[in-house]
Design brief:
alpha+beta; disordered N terminus; Aldehyde Oxidoreductase, domain 4
């Protein structure tokens, strides 16, 4: 997503800092060297990664936010491995907003959780932090005993002197260790020495979720707090014209009515009062310039833009010459619709505006940017906005945005008490920031054996990066929009990828689980299947021929084919489909088995997943992430679609924006390839590769090639 740095760059440019923790003990953290000591007045919470108290309890501050992906376990595992402590003695703290201390090395040192970067970004820095703390504890023990530190070793939670048969606990050493100079170089364990990394560690956040003590944003409670809900203009860009405040105030429990430029909020003693009051207020809006926009208008605009050339993302060889002389030419157009995030935890934010600033209780993937956005909206200094971050009940990219947080702050500014703003499910789905609608044009030239000798892919769609991180939108290229396309796994000599930026009128777009690859893997892997069919070749064999220079991708393909019994006959109207991807530093192959009913409805029966994600920190988390990604992807490919008519989003809740139900879930088999490569990301690949595997399976079952999602059951019914 943002500027990427290699592991070697991270090693050279960062160092460790340590200090005595409040109340005794040790505190140590990792800071970007070029940015150290910039902030003179840090937040009250200790700004460090490791705190060891006098009893030896270890608290690890997670730089990334937990939203179900297992970050609050896998990142502490990195520290615990090198520090030499048992995970049972570890607890996790949520990091406050601080780019300087908690910035993501892969995302330009911004404190952003997303893009499957948590392990990739912090694998070395957090291990180094743990190793440095261990060295300092050993040095402290050596001072006490008057021995050479090299003669000492550690075992979980203790420094041990074997020659004298004595040991000191980390708790006993913490105060002294905090005064030890931080080592300039630390030696990390060899992988053969790991006792924590690579093991199925028990999730540290499970107990709180089971006993109810875990605090999500929606759980925030403040003294004298009221609840608000909101209705924004049904058309993006519209304005509030009028409302019936008297009618709203007649509802028992309604406390106040708050007017914004484009929305109306009603505040109540409880949510039901606020909801009924909002209904009674009957807000009226001016639609503004986008009141007649429809999905057809959006698609027409994309199709027109696709007729022209775009900015070149990658070009190898000479496509035009190779295409003109090809034995056979194949062209296709694919579409990927707008998608909503529909996270299970409703969008919410609690805000209290006081004389000295503003407090915000929320679950966000971007704490620093949220702080800055609220400060700008309320005309405060950044340090006057205090973000209290929480667990996130589903992000999928939605909480990479601060629109709801700013709206809550603008509402709270007009109140004399804290307010929790909760969006209804309808408000959430109809005022989301959507996965862009993409329109893709392919042209491929095949040789006499049916193999591609020329490949052209023109991607047309909204640029998220141009809005979200403008410096990264360079020379007309959105790096996210072409991710997974410009660097696809297959070797084709004459290769050309273009990007055309075409913004939908007034419709906000944002990252959605899988970001660029969630669309590019879908269209590329579908088109590869088309080429295989044109060549009258098996889809797996066809891919094998194109992956001879990509051994990691070839290996996961071969293993998935074996695991799924590829080629074994299935029953009537059943089919298998395959997809291969290299994205987020992970190589993955998925094979889906589907059954298509006579009514055209598709049931995904089984999904096989084989992946090479480099060094694995917690295999249980990897499997869970892949399973959840597959489930998320099935919902999208079968039913996911946001449509517009007269400027209004037509979907409003889970009755018309469906998600898969438990009885519809397939059997999912996940196999992890043992690898010593650098860790890859795993949160999103499971979603990215699912759609093409299912669509290719549907084609195998029915002979119908679908080039648009969600699946058109009517076409499949007619094909019966």
């Amino acid at each position: 997503m943002l500027a990427r740095k290699t592991n070697s760059e991270l090693s050279r440019r960062n160092f460790l800092v340590a200090a005595a923790a409040a109340g005794g003990g040790m505190m140590i953290g990792w800071v970007p060297a070029v940015e150290a000591n910039v902030e003179k007045d840090p937040p009250a919470m200790p700004d460090a990664y490791i705190r060891i108290d006098g009893q030896g309890k270890v608290t690890i501050t997670s730089p990334m936010i937990e939203m179900g992906q297992g970050t609050y376990t896998s990142l502490p595992m990195l520290v615990a491995e090198e520090l030499d402590v048992d995970m049972a003695n570890v607890s996790v703290a949520i990091s406050p907003p601080n780019d300087k201390l908690y910035g993501n090395p892969l995302l330009g040192h911004a404190q952003v959780t997303g893009g499957s970067t948590s392990i990739r970004g912090f694998y070395l820095p957090l291990r180094k932090t743990g190793a440095a703390a261990r060295a300092m504890l050993i040095a402290a023990a050596a001072e006490i005993w008057g021995v050479d530190p090299a003669t000492l070793r550690t075992e979980p939670g203790f420094v041990v002197d074997d020659s004298a048969k004595r040991r000191l606990s980390y708790g006993e050493l913490a105060d002294r260790a905090a005064k030890i100079a931080v080592p300039s170089e630390v030696k990390l364990k060899d992988a053969s020495q790991f006792r924590i990394i690579g093991t199925p560690a028990k999730r540290l956040d499970v107990s709180g979720k089971v006993n109810g003590s875990a605090q999500y944003g929606i759980d925030a409670k403040m003294p004298n707090m009221k609840i608000a809900t909101v209705s924004a203009s049904p058309v993006f860009g519209g304005k509030l014209v009028s409302f019936d405040e008297a009618a709203a105030r007649k509802i028992p429990g309604v406390v106040q009515v708050v007017k914004l430029d484009n929305a109306l909020a009603v505040v109540g003693d409880h949510y039901w009062a606020a909801k009924k009051g909002l209904e009674a207020a009957s807000p009226v809006f001016d639609d503004g310039p986008h009141g007649n926009v429809s999905t057809a208008d959006v698609v027409a605009g994309l199709a027109r833009a696709a007729e022209g050339s775009g900015a070149v993302a990658k070009s190898d060889g000479n496509f035009a010459t190779a295409f003109s002389s090809a034995t056979e030419k194949v062209e296709a157009t694919y579409e990927a619709p707008f998608l909503a995030h529909a996270a299970m935890e409703p969008m919410n934010c609690t805000v209290a505006v006081t004389g000295d600033g503003c407090d915000v209780w929320v679950g966000t993937q971007i704490p620093v940017w949220a702080q800055q956005a609220v400060a700008a909206a309320l005309k405060l200094k950044n340090e006057q906005v205090r973000i209290h971050n929480h667990l996130i009940g589903g992000g999928f990219g939605r909480r990479l945005e601060s629109d709801g947080i700013v709206q809550a702050a603008l509402i709270a500014r007009q109140l004399d008490f804290p307010v929790k703003v909760v969006w209804s499910r309808e408000e959430d789905i109809q005022h989301d920031m959507y996965r862009p609608y993409y329109y893709d044009r392919f042209s491929a030239g095949l040789d006499a054996q049916g193999m591609p000798v020329a490949w052209s892919h023109r991607i047309v769609g909204s640029s998220i990066m141009a809005r979200w991180a403008p410096p990264l939108f360079k020379n007309g290229i959105d790096p996210d929009a072409v991710d997974g396309a410009a660097d696809m796994p297959y070797a084709i000599e004459n290769f050309h990828v273009e990007y055309v930026r075409e913004e939908p009128p007034g419709i906000p777009t944002a990252f959605w689980r899988g970001v660029g690859p969630t669309h590019n893997v879908y269209v590329i892997e579908s088109f590869i299947d088309e080429l295989a069919a044109k060549a009258k070749k098996d889809p797996v064999e066809y891919r094998r021929a194109l992956l001879q220079k990509n051994p990691r991708a070839l290996h996961v393909l071969n293993r998935a084919a074996e695991l799924s019994n590829w080629g074994k006959p299935l029953g009537p109207r059943q089919g298998r489909g395959v997809s291969v991807q290299q994205a987020f530093g992970t190589y993955m192959c998925q094979v889906a088995e589907v059954t298509v009913g006579k009514d055209g409805q598709v049931h995904v029966d089984r999904v096989y997943v084989v992946l090479d994600t480099g060094v694995v920190v917690n295999p249980d988390t990897v499997v869970a992430q892949v399973q959840s990604g597959v489930i998320f992807g099935i919902s999208a490919v079968l039913w996911g679609e946001i449509t517009l008519a007269k400027g209004r989003v037509q979907q409003s809740n889970f009755d018309d924006y469906r998600v898969i139900r438990i009885d519809e879930a397939p059997k999912i088999e996940v196999e992890i390839v043992k690898s010593e490569a650098d860790p890859g990301g795993i949160g999103e690949p499971g979603t990215s590769g699912l759609a093409p595997a299912v669509l290719n399976a549907v084609c195998a079952a029915t002979g119908v090639r679908l080039r648009k999602t969600p699946i058109d059951s009517k076409r499949l019914k007619e094909a019966s």
